[in-house]
Design goal:
By secondary structure, this protein is α/β, with parallel strands linked by helices. It contains twelve helices and twelve strands. The strands form three sheets. It has a five-stranded parallel β-sheet with strand order 10-9-11-1-12, sandwiched between helices. A four-stranded parallel β-sheet has the order 3-2-4-5. Strands 7-6-8 form a three-stranded parallel β-sheet, sandwiched between helices. Helix 9 runs parallel beside helix 10.
């Protein structure tokens, strides 16, 4: 053990990392709802993809459910940051429920874009991952068949627009790999030169910044840990970006206890970042776990400053 304590380990922290404005807002919405209406407040789906966040809100009185029919009609319900199909608020209104929509404003922007293109008669191509809550929510903004999901370049090459569409437009999930998405868009633009693009890129600022920070540190470290949930799209993309950017030893962990100290035995420089739904506390715990075993030095590499803030919905803004 004494030999391990003298093993020098430099932790290279990526910045920005961790919570984005949409996640911060969603958590505040649940906390403010609890303050305004008291416990319990129901939340449809994980408010954000992080067990630490979910468990801390559960301790305050939030109850997480999968579907609306699990919620009693006399208690408020919050919809997750990933967005929901239009059928969900419609059902809440039918049941005369109090609800607060915590959909990230940048996801709502994608919803509005899709609706605008649909009104213009265009068929919408959504670049994203099947089954992800954000994709389910976006596809649920419009009637069945109005949106085609494309997950990779091969699907983009084989895509055939439906008959009767007055042109094509594409939108994207907000948490994708910037580089992978650019390649898919390149295929679509080559095959359909007139395809309409978003006025402003759909991949959110936080996803882009965190990927750029990983690209900056990956060539300079022996290994990289991304702190995030296994169902977190943006966290999984950070692992992929780390590998492509030069750090083959890139791993996803949920918390400090998941850190494999034997894996770090030959590591001199360890990159550390966190997905957009992972709190900074989890980063601090990883640093402390390393300090208990190694002689740790901490460096931070910052590629951007973030000062984005989103307003809370009126229903909870004055709670």
């Amino acid at each position: 053990m004494s030999a391990q304590l003298t093993h020098p380990l430099t932790l290279v922290l990526a910045a920005p990392r961790g919570f984005c404005a949409g996640v911060d807002r969603a958590i505040q919405i649940v906390e403010q709802a609890l303050q305004k209406w008291g416990a319990p407040v129901y939340v449809r789906h994980e408010i954000v993809h992080n067990r630490h966040v979910v468990e801390s809100l559960e301790a305050k009185g939030a109850i997480f459910v999968e579907e609306l029919d699990e919620c009693p009609p006399d208690r408020p319900v919050v919809f997750s940051a990933h967005g929901v199909p239009k059928s969900v608020p419609a059902e809440a209104e039918r049941r005369e429920m109090v609800y607060v929509d915590a959909t990230c404003p940048l996801v709502s922007k994608v919803h509005l874009e899709a609706e605008r293109h649909y009104r213009q008669g265009q068929h919408i191509v959504l670049i994203g991952h099947a089954g992800h809550p954000e994709v389910i929510g976006t596809m649920g903004q419009l009637p069945d068949g109005a949106i085609s999901l494309i997950e990779d370049e091969a699907q983009a090459e084989g895509f055939t627009p439906p008959e009767g569409a007055d042109g094509l437009a594409f939108v994207t999930q907000t948490t994708l790999s910037v580089d992978d998405t650019a390649r898919i868009v390149e295929v679509l633009r080559r095959r359909f030169p007139a395809i309409a693009a978003p006025k402003k890129e759909d991949i959110c600022y936080a996803t882009t910044n965190r990927q750029e920070a990983v690209k900056a540190i990956a060539p300079r470290v022996d290994a990289l840990v991304v702190i995030g949930a296994p169902n977190s799209s943006n966290s999984k993309r950070l692992v992929e970006v780390g590998k492509v950017a030069g750090c083959a030893e890139s791993r996803l962990i949920q918390k400090a206890a998941d850190l494999d100290m034997d894996w770090l035995a030959g590591v001199e420089r360890l990159g550390v970042t966190a997905g957009a739904s992972a709190p900074e506390l989890l980063v601090e715990q990883v640093i402390e776990a390393c300090r208990a075993r190694f002689a740790v030095t901490v460096e931070e590499v910052e590629v951007a400053r973030e000062d984005v803030r989103f307003k809370l919905p009126r229903a909870v803004a004055t709670a």
